[in-house]
Amino acid sequence: MQREPTTTxxxxxxxxxxRVPDVLRAIGHQPQAALxxxxxxxxxxxxxxxxxxxxxxxxxxxxxxxxxxxxxxxSEPRSGASFARMRGAESTDADYLVFLxxxxxxxxxxxxxxxxxxxxxxxxxxxxxxxxxxxxEPPPSAVYKRRALLAIxxxxxxxxxxxxxxxxxxxxxxxxWVRREPFLSAVRSSRWGNLLPDRCGGSLMCGGDIxxxxxxxxxxxxxxxxxxxxxQHIIPIGRTGMAYMxxxxxxxxxxxxxxxxxxxxxxxxxxxxxxxxxxxxxLTLAPLAGLVRCDLAESxxxxxxxxxxxxxxxRLEEGAQNGG
Length: 324
Known about the structure:
Layout: E1 7-13, H1 20-28, H2 32-35, E2 38-44, H3 49-56, H4 59-66, E3 71-75, H5 81-89, E4 96-99, E5 104-106, H6 110-120, E6 124-135, H7 141-144, E7 161-163, E8 176-179, H8 180-188, H9 208-218, E9 222-235, H10 242-262, H11 271-293, H12 296-311, H13 316-322
Parallel strand pairs: 1-2, 1-4, 2-3, 6-9
Antiparallel strand pairs: 4-8, 5-9, 6-8, 7-9
C-alpha cells in the first residue's frame, strides 16, 4: 500500500480554469524531494462541469502527474471558500496542509520550507506565508496604501513573528500551512458554531482566514509568520478599480463586526456603540477631506468602511445572497 504524502496542497476554485494551471505550473517547479512527498487536491466550489474538466485536461496537470504527484479533483456543494478548504482537509490523511488560492504562485522552495518549519517548531500549529503582489497594472495610490486588504502582507518584514493565546494574528489562507489533526480538531469543535463561509460566489464576505487562526490559537497552538514561505498573489486590474475596492472595504468592515460578535475580541475596542459613533463622524468628514485632497477614491474608501461598520455583522446567509 502506497504511503500517504506528508503534505497536501488544497486549492479551492470557482471558474478557475484560466488561473489554476498557473498554480500547478509553479508547484511543478518545486524541489524534487518536496514533490515526492506532495499531493494536490483541487476543490471546485460551484463552477460549471466544463471548468473542472478543463483544469484536469491541462498540460500542467499532466506534467505534475508525470512527475509522480497525485492531483485529485473534488467538489464542495456548499458555497464558500472555507467550506471548500474544509472539504479538502477532510479528504486527506497528510500531516500538513497548505491552502493556496487559485491566484497564488508559490516560490520555488515553498514546499520545502513548510515541513522544515514545522519540524523545527513543534509548538506551532499554523504558518503564515509572506505574500507579495504581482500587479497586472500598477494600482492607484489609494489602493496601494490598502494593499493589505488584498491579502498582501509583505509589510510584515523579513523577521519571523509568533502569536499565541488570545492575540489575534493577521492570518491569511493564501499560503497558510496547518498541522492537519490540530486544525480539524479546532475548527470542528461544536462550541465554535458554524464557520464563516468566506467568499461565496460573487460575495466579498471574508474573515475565514482570521477565524481559522483564532481557533488554532485558542486550542493552545502557536501561529508563526515565516518570511521564507514566499508566494506571489496575482492581482488583476479589475480588483484595483474604485468600485471593487469600495465593495471589498465595506465587506471587510462587516466581516470584522461578524467576528467581533462571534468571538470575545472586543476588549479595548470600546464596544459597538462607540465604533458606530466614530464611523458616523467619518462619514460626515470623508467627503470634505476628499475635496481638500482632491482624492475621490480616498473619500469613497473611507465612507465604504464606515458604512460597513454601521451596517453591522453579516447574517451568514446574507453575504451569499447579496453579493457582498
